């Protein structure tokens, strides 16, 4: 599969590479690092762009449509825990994570979200 992860950053999670592909109107993709084989693809039409960040065993994806997606690492699926609307305008930057805080930058503001 041609990953084409432009406008997003792929992350390494264990022995997998997880990224966001523009195929099928945007979908998440898991790839085996050793073989290069596709392990899974998410549902299509997830969005235009996404910036991924890993913290522990969780994956944080800030989609350009102002949604923060939290997912568990998995070799079998994009395992979404929760989706949050985090801004009123488009988000183009990678989320910055520090402890239980997540910094989210949209077009004109910077917001701090705290996770308990």
Short description:
By secondary structure, the protein is mainly beta. It has strands at residues 11-13, 16-21, 27-32, 38-41, 50-55, 58-63, 67-72, 79-85, 96-98, 101-105, 110-114. Helix content is 0%, strand content 49%.
Mean pLDDT: 85
> Structural class of the secondary structure composition?
mainly beta
Strand content: over 45%
The percent of residues in helical segments reads: under 10%
Spatial sequence of strands, sheet with the most strands = 1-2-3-4
Biggest sheet overview: 4 strands, antiparallel
CATH fold assignment of the domain at 11-87: Thrombin, subunit H
Unreliable spans = none
State the order of secondary-structure elements, H for helix, E for strand: EEEEEEEEEEE
CATH class of the domain at 11-87: Mainly Beta
Level-2 CATH architecture of the domain at 11-87: Beta Barrel
Gyration radius from CA atoms, angstroms:
13 Å
The count of helical stretches stands at 0
The rounded distance between the terminal residues' Cα atoms is: 38 Å
Number of strands: 11
Shape: globular
What does this structure look like?
The chain has 116 residues and is mainly β. The chain has strands at residues 11-13, 16-21, 27-32, 38-41, 50-55, 58-63, 67-72, 79-85, 96-98, 101-105, 110-114. The strands form 3 sheets. A 4-stranded antiparallel beta sheet has the order 1-2-3-4, with no helix packed on it. A 4-stranded antiparallel beta sheet has the order 5-6-7-8, with no helix packed on it. A 3-stranded antiparallel beta sheet has the order 9-10-11, with no helix packed on it. Strand 7 (67-72) and strand 8 (79-85) form a beta hairpin. The protein is globular. The protein starts with 10 loop residues before the first strand and ends with a strand. 23% of the residues are buried.
């Amino acid at each position: 599969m041609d990953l084409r992860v432009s406008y997003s950053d792929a992350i390494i999670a264990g022995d997998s590479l997880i990224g966001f592909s523009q195929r099928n109107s945007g979908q998440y993709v898991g790839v085996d690092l050793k073989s290069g084989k596709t392990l899974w693809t998410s549902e299509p039409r997830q969005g235009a762009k996404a910036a991924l960040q890993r913290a522990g065993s969780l994956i944080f994806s800030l989609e350009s449509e102002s949604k923060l997606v939290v997912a568990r690492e998995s070799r079998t699926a994009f395992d979404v825990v929760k989706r949050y609307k985090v801004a009123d305008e488009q988000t183009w930057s990678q989320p910055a994570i520090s402890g239980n805080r997540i910094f989210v930058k949209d077009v004109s503001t910077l917001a701090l979200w705290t996770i308990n």
